[in-house]
Amino acid sequence: MKRFGMVSGLKPDRISAYKKLHAEVWPEVLEMIKKCHLQNYSIFLKDELLFSYFEYTGDDFERDMEKM
Q1: CA dist., res. 59 & res. 22, Å (int)
Q2: How would you write the pLDDT of the chain (68 residues) with one tens digit per residue?
Q3: Is the Cβ–Cβ distance between 52 and 6 less than 8 Å?
Q4: Are 5 and 50 in contact (CB under 8 A)?
Q5: Which residues contact 51 (CB under 8 A, 6 or more apart)?
Q6: Structure confidence at residue 14 (pLDDT)
C-alpha cells in the first residue's frame, strides 16, 4: 500500500459550491474510487485549502488515475 496526500487551493467564491457537491457523494463516484484501488479517501477543507489523502492498493497507479 502507498499513501498519497495533496494540497490544492479553492477560490473563495467556489467554497459554497464545493461543499454542496461534496455533501452527498454520488454512488458512482464511490464505486469508481473502489475500482481504482483507493481506500481511506478523505478530503479536508481549511479556509481556502483542500487537503486530500488516500491509500492506493493497486499495482498500476497511472492506469487507475486515468480511469479516475
Answers
A1: 28
A2: 999 999 999 999 999 999 998 999 999 999 999 999 999 999 999 999 999 999 999 999 999 999 99
A3: yes
A4: no
A5: 5, 6, 7, 43, 44
A6: 96
| 46, three cell numbers | 481549511
- In terms of phi and psi (left: phi > 0; alpha: psi -120 to 50; beta: otherwise), the region of 66 is alpha
For 55-59, the CB contacts below 8 A with 24+ separation are: 55/1, 55/2, 55/3, 55/4, 56/1, 56/2, 56/3, 56/4, 57/1
- Sequence-distant (6+) residues with CB within 8 A of 36 are 58, 64, 65, 67, 68
